[in-house]
Fold this sequence. Notes:
By secondary structure, this protein is α+β, with helices and mostly antiparallel strands. 37% of the residues lie in helices and 29% in strands. It folds into two domains: 3-141, Fructose-1,6-Bisphosphatase, subunit A, domain 1 (Fructose-1,6-Bisphosphatase, Chain A, domain 1); 150-257, D-Maltodextrin-Binding Protein, domain 2 (3-Layer(aba) Sandwich).
Amino acid sequence: MAEGELHARFEAACAIAREAGGLAKELFRARKPGTFSLKGYQDYLTEADGQVERLIADRISKQFPGDTFVGEEGGGEFGARTWIVDPIDGTANFARGIPRFCVSIAMVEAGQPAIGVIYDPMMGELFAARSGRGATLNSQPIHVSITTNANEATVELGWSPRRPMAEYAEMLARVVATGAGVNRSGSGALALAYVAAGRIDGYAELHINAWDALAGILLIKEAGGWVSDFLANDGLRKGNALLASTPALSAMLREATGISR
């Protein structure tokens, strides 16, 4: 893609993420308790997800009609140039009144992330990256942390019902045994943005979908971090395990999580 075309899409992604996040924030404040359902075990869905995704899809289709679109809620089709979107990552938080969720927008060209944008509307924070151009938070450059000691590290572990609970518990035990502090905040995309910004030192999940992962993967790479090969074995369509961290902690976390490549 020509530089001008990529730049136009990057600027559009940032603007669309802010607009979509504004809508999500309005819907969060106006929500009624109990207005959510489950797509599957511990997999939440709210009316807001659909509204926000439709807004994003509409904006992209009007500005870039030749591009394809895949959303968490509505699906779509993959093409040479595809936008992959999670309208509200952290839906369980959103549904239960916890103000920790985000909009995640990635644009993939020829199977590789070229644009990644994550917007936290409750904090007004826009994490953004273009391939080869670095990563920013509200237009200021960001970098992964300089932590080298596991005893000083904080790692977030995502949980997915797509893998047995026993595997998650075993991974948790191994990571805790390294001396690292462990947390789980309920939004994998936002946790990945925090790795890119140096707020936490690593993130691991035994299965995560592309719409949750791709924007954060690009952010971390552009912020100087290490990321496992999420796209292996058709991770783009099927999801995959994911480990992302500072380079200094990657070997230790690969061993502890079992996510080795």
